[in-house]
Amino acid sequence: MTQKKLLALVIVAIISITYPGFAFAAAVHVPVSHTGTEAAKPAHYIYDASPVKSPSGNSTIMTQSAVNPSLLYSQEPAPMGIADFGLGPGGTPYQYNTSSFEGMINISNLQTYNASLTSSYYGYRYGMSFQLNTVLSFSLSGNTYDYWTQDVAFLNTSNRTMYIIDNVWNLSSSKAKIYNSTLSGTGVVNASLGFYYDIGGVPTGSKPGESYPFTLAFRLNSTLSSGTPTVEFQYNAGSGWVTFDSPEFIFAKGASAPAFVVNGNSYTPLGNFYDSELILGGPAGGSQTSSAEC
Q: What pairs with residue 132 in β-bridges?
């Protein structure tokens, strides 16, 4: 992979929602296992727990002239927002690595509703999510490891209350999961689904009944901490940047420097994209929602 050092690619979206048809983010890629005892405490909140959205039969890295950005979603409902699939003009593929991604959302007016969503979590019928999603990669002892990192804000558009969480999923093979021996941070591992999450709570600088317009920013940083690959989950809700979680891949001390990868030539071992995304979706669990009149 080509390494571009100190590259911080900024994704900026100015959003004034007036269209229907949101779907949950591309998401939860359930995805090589690491030996260890799994966490006994399952997630107790609404998290991104959709089934794998990937084409069948993709269990190894595929390299071709270019990826197909419509492979997983060819029509609505689908995630909405912006993404870098590593494709330039005319569909010409490119690739790069970077140590940081940043996404900014400016909400002018937003109201979502789906009567079929009955859970009370995060005002579920009125809920939706913003997500900055990336693929983190590093190498150790000749093996490459890929992880889906998600910096997420859940928004109850009824009372305008926001909650911050993160997710990390293992994309390193079609059966890969995350165990307690894989990752250590302020969050926990969900044993049944094999992913890591942390609840950052109500973001500093935000409050229930938040007035519009409102700006929220996400940032993901990759670094080596004492030789161990680490990812920093950050947000800025108006009171400066807050790092709410910095999980370390504790099995991988001595690995190469981790980096976020965008590659328009290849799919991950799970058959998903090496891409970056700043998207809007349903509140959780593969759900979808629609915007009300703005």
A: 151, 278
Whole-angstrom distance, CA of residue 84 vs CA of residue 262: 7
Question: Of 220, 221, 215, 191, which Cα lies nearest the Cα of 203?
Answer: 215
CA distance 65 to 128: 36
Q: Coil, helix or strand for 206?
A: coil
Q: Which of 257, 9, 54, 48 is nearest to 166 (CA)?
A: 48
Contact 10, 236 (CB under 8 A): no
Query: How far is Cα 277 from Cα 84, in angstroms, rounded to an integer?
Result: 7
pTM over 0.90: no
The Cα–Cα gap between 21 and 266 comes to: 29
**Phi and psi dihedrals of 121, rounded to 5?**
-60, 130
Percentage of the chain modeled with pLDDT above 70 = 75
**At residue 178, what is the residue type?**
I
Residue 205 pLDDT class (50, 70, 90 cuts): confident
Q: What is the DSSP string of 255-273?
A: PPPPEEEEEEEEE-TTS-E
Residues 6+ apart with CB under 8 A from 90: none
**Whole-angstrom Cα distance, residue 179 to residue 190?**
8
How many whole angstroms separate alpha carbon 203 and alpha carbon 287? 23
Q: What is the C-alpha separation between 228 and 249, in angstroms, rounded? A: 6
Which residues are CB-contacts of 49 (< 8 A; sequence separation ≥ 6)? 28, 43, 193, 284, 285, 286
Question: Within 10 A of 102 (CB to CB), how many other CB atoms are there?
Answer: 20
Q: Report the amino acid identity of residue 275.
A: D
The pair phi, psi for residue 140, each rounded to 5°, is -150, 125
Q: Give SS3 for 145.
A: strand
Percentage helix, strand, coil, to 5, in the chain? 5, 45, 50
Instruction: Please tell me the least confidently modeled range out of 46-50, 200-204, 223-227.
Output: 46-50
